[in-house]
Amino acid sequence: MAGRRARVSYAIPMLLASLLAGCGAASAPPEPPKPVLVARADRAVDASSIYAFAGEIRAREETALSFRVPGKLARRLVDTGDRVRAGDVLAELDPRDLGLQADSLQAQLSAAEAQLVRARADHARTAGLARDQLVSRAALDQQKAALQAAIGQVNAIRAQRDAARNQAAYSQLRAPGEGAIAARAAEAGQVVAAGQTIFFFVGDGEPEVAFALPESTVRAFKVGQMVMVEPWMAEGMRLPARIREIAPAADPVTRTYAARALIEPPHTQAVSLGQSARVYIKSEASAALLKLPLAAIQRAPNDGDSAVVWVADPKTGRVRRVPVRIGDFGPDSVPVLAGLAAEDWVVVAGGHLLHDGQQVVAVDRSNRPIKPN
Prior knowledge:
Blueprint lengths: L1 H25 L7 E7 L1 E2 L6 E9 L3 E5 L4 E6 L6 E2 L4 E5 L2 H36 L5 H33 L2 E3 L4 E6 L6 E2 L4 E7 L4 E7 L11 E6 L7 E8 L9 E8 L12 E7 L7 E4 L4 E2 L7 E7 L4 E9 L6 E6 L6 E3 L12 E4 L10
Parallel strand pairs: 1-23
Antiparallel strand pairs: 1-22, 2-17, 3-12, 3-16, 4-11, 5-7, 5-10, 6-9, 7-8, 9-11, 12-15, 13-14, 13-16, 14-15, 17-21, 18-19, 19-20, 19-22, 20-21
């Protein structure tokens, strides 16, 4: 009995203690709302949306001129810098071999035509005998086949003769249009192959500026967009131009996209071919660009390469994690390309201590609570 009373007397204080602890836990106050510093994303300033690229003044029509047939370069009639007109002879190959080939085929054609005359006469004679049933039907068919073969032979040799004459005409390299010779790549006496460059030709017309767009920003520009061109030798002179083309694929070595902008008249006379220039382009997406302080950007918990921000809702007093797509980091800010609205209140400090749905008190930089709209 004494032992039982001892155990009971020991259990009662323990039970009271547990009851008191349970009451204390039930009456513990909830976690107070955490004050967070919030701000709205700033619009990207104009300076951050203007890109500058190195470029070169080029002609719109740039052609590497070459012969269509091989041979020995007999004469070069123009030099670098010469003005030419459409059809002007620029260089000539030695035409003797090509001429001899054409003459040989002409002789073969004459012989084939003589054979054709004979085949027609034989066919007409055999047809007359067949009508009188003096020769067999097989003999007539044989003469008819011989006539068709003679006709085919004449047509084939005539086509070869015409092709040889064309090749003889190809011994002259002519200018494709109005323009100038930018460079030469062969000299008289040199044996050249078909397609080997002899001259570089630049056509008359509005000059262009050639430049390269990095793959990180190429989607911010499009064909038809206005740009400004500043020649290196005329600092401060900005010439209006319009993007004419953007390559659909990146260069495999530089990973940039080739682009060309056409300089608009009457400013074409202010630049010279081959001149260096700087191209200034304002991104058409700049009006929609937002930027946030670097501290507002957090990494997604399940994907370290993705970015998230914490957006506070003044109406509910809670925060939520929002995935965003960002651009290149700047010295103290980063552009937000997608996922964020301009009216969102973004937590700009202490975001790494928050969790989804947490109760917060959003305050601005003056420590004033944000009021619901």
